DNA sequence: CGTGTAAGGAATTCTGACACG
DNA sequence: CGTGTAAGGAATTCTGACACG
């Protein structure tokens, strides 16, 4: 996935009515999940909410969990946890790469 | 670019006001280019136009050409020409692949 | 040809609030 | 807590048309 594509997923350009159609959620629900900090739409000049495709995916996850009876507070915790996991995974990858580079460098030195 | 990403670029979910902001074109211009068949937004149940990111890219190309004084008829021709080129390119790729497969097959036969 | 604009109507979106369970 | 709903106002979008160069 290149930069260009990423920008599409992230770009907040979809209005709430369309999001409602795409997710099957009511306007009320979508706005409420925002109130509970589960999503953060962009607001244009005159306050209209704009969502990205990522927001839509998040909303669909939320919908599934709500159907299973999970409360918004719990969903928020889960989302934050996953965020932390992604961060630490990225950290691990960075360290592994550094380790490999060091190994390479040492092999190079041994040969001289 | 996987299927998932493609669907984002192609999905017609952006309303004309947002497209106007993103492209710098007026509503009038955007609707006119549709009249001239340069773009084909989706229409939802009650007739509201919905555009994709691809449509937006196309509109930006159109804007550039219009600035250079190219008429919409010419732009339409250019777009159709490019479409044909893409088709024939795909055709060539398919033939090349077929050729390679045949070659492979023949080599296999020679060995037996 | 390409674009602006005023016109009238219909649908969208927003907020704050009351309701219910 | 999560969601529905009615309320009032502001902005959006649509179409068909006249205007201009």
Largest interface here, residues on each chain? A-B, 15 and 15 residues
Mean pLDDT score of chain A, rounded?
90
Major sheet: arrangement of strands of chain A: 1-3-2
| Low-pLDDT ranges of chain A | none
Strand content of chain A: 5-15%
CATH top level assignment of the largest domain in chain A: Mainly Alpha
Radius of gyration of chain A: 20 Å
Please state the overall shape of chain A, judged from the principal axes of the Cα atoms.
elongated
Number of helices of chain A: 5
Summarize the structure.
Chain A is mainly α and 112 residues long.
List the helices and strands and how they pair.
The structure is a homodimer of 112-residue chains.
Chain A: H1 3-10, E1 14-15, H2 16-23, H3 27-35, E2 42-43, E3 49-51, H4 53-67, H5 72-111
Antiparallel strand pairs in A: 1-3, 2-3
Chain A binds a DNA duplex (21 and 21 nucleotides) through helix 3.
Report on the structure:
The structure is a homodimer of 112-residue chains. With 112 residues, chain A is mainly alpha-helical. Chain A folds into two domains: 1-70, Multidrug-efflux Transporter Regulator, Chain: A, Domain 2 (Orthogonal Bundle); 74-112. Chain A is 71% helix and 6% strand. The first copy, chain A, has a three-stranded antiparallel beta sheet. The two termini of chain A are 40 Å apart. The model of chain A has no long low-confidence stretch (mean pLDDT 90). The interface between A and B is medium-sized, with 15 and 15 residues. Chain A binds a DNA duplex (21 and 21 nucleotides) through helix 3.
